[in-house]
Amino acid sequence: FYSIQNIFLVLSSTNASADSDTSESRHGINDRHMASLLEACRDLDSWFVKKRFLLSSQRPDLLLQEELDAMQSETARKEKLIAETKVKLKQYVDSISAIVEQFTSDLSYRPQLT
Question: Does the record's keyword annotation contain DNA repair (predicted)?
Answer without folding.
Answer: no
